[in-house]
Amino acid sequence: MHSLPSGSYERLSSLPALWHAYLDCRRDKRRQPRMALFDLDADRHLCALQRALAGGSYRPDPWRMRVVHDPKTRLIAAPSIRDRVVHRALLNEIGPHYEHGFIEHSYTGGRGRGPHRAVLCFLRWMRRYRYRLCLDIRRYFPSVHHPTLCRLLFRRLHDRRCQALIEQLLAAGGAVYRTPLAVQVLELDRYPLAEDCGLPLGSYLSQWSGTFYLDGLDHFVKRELKAPAYLRYMDDFALFGDDPDKLVADRAAIVDWLAAERRLTLNPKRWDVIPTTHPSIFLGYRVSRAGITPSRKLRRSMQRRLRRAAEQGYEPLVRSLKSYKGLLLF
């Protein structure tokens, strides 16, 4: 493996890199009040951010948190606009050096990927093979182990200042799970987390790190287990085949690998080997050999959100309809 070019911290903390990262963060979000406020004096904010990064005085801001019930209770934590720019600048600098190693059957992010592509691939495998094994990881984002994630990243990233920035951002995100709101909503008093674990839902850095953290699982399933058909979207993944005993053996191997390599466990509620003649719910869609339809949960969510958008006026309703365009095409 080749290490990343030296001086990457200097490039990601440069004013042009921060400006391009800001433009990426602003795309499709200029209507948001916080983004609009930042936009009024963006040049001053970015110059101050560049000085803080270059001088070593940068510290992440507190995360904004809210609870959603859709229908599962989740804690969403959003970084400030200033921190979003840092996240984007960091990943613009180091991300491509890792992403070229992602296998084609990982659909979490990137050009040509996404949930719709994942569901279409799922349908293709449903029609081709006799059995499926759908798995997901128990409490995935709260369970991501920071030292393990850093060890995986730092194999190729040798810039010490960039390493320190990543550790700082991960620690700030993990602190979300130690707030009173997180303890109450996620019942962390009953299911405590380690001090050095947790990626908060709601940031691009968390999404990218969550994708990268399981990249090794993708290679393990395809290279060592030799699964004939496999796909993953974040922590939801599926294996297909014509031999149910082989799928059961693969499940046991995945359990051992996750525990040894990533300190993760599977959700035991969803790990049966099922014939592909039975419909399946995957990423909110009901997938059968006949085709793809929205699940009942997704239909209820769509109706509720469209009704709420219609109460806000014509333009919010149009934006919501456009956001559901891909769903309605199914």
Comma- or semicolon-separated keywords:
330 residues, four-stranded antiparallel beta sheet, three-stranded antiparallel beta sheet, 54% helix
What does this structure look like?
With 330 residues, this protein is of the alpha+beta class. The chain has 16 helices and nine strands. β8 (285-288) and β9 form a beta hairpin. The chain starts with 7 loop residues before the first helix and ends with a helix. 30% of the residues are buried. The mean pLDDT is 88.
Task: List the topology elements.
Layout: H1 8-12, H2 15-26, H3 33-40, H4 42-55, E1 64-69, E2 73-78, H5 81-99, H6 115-128, E3 131-136, H7 140-143, H8 146-154, H9 160-174, H10 180-185, H11 204-213, H12 215-224, E4 229-233, E5 236-241, H13 244-262, E6 273-275, E7 280-282, E8 285-288, E9 291-294, H14 296-312, H15 314-323, H16 325-329
Antiparallel strand pairs: 1-2, 3-5, 3-6, 4-5, 7-8, 8-9
Helix pairs in contact: 2-4, 2-5, 5-11, 14-15
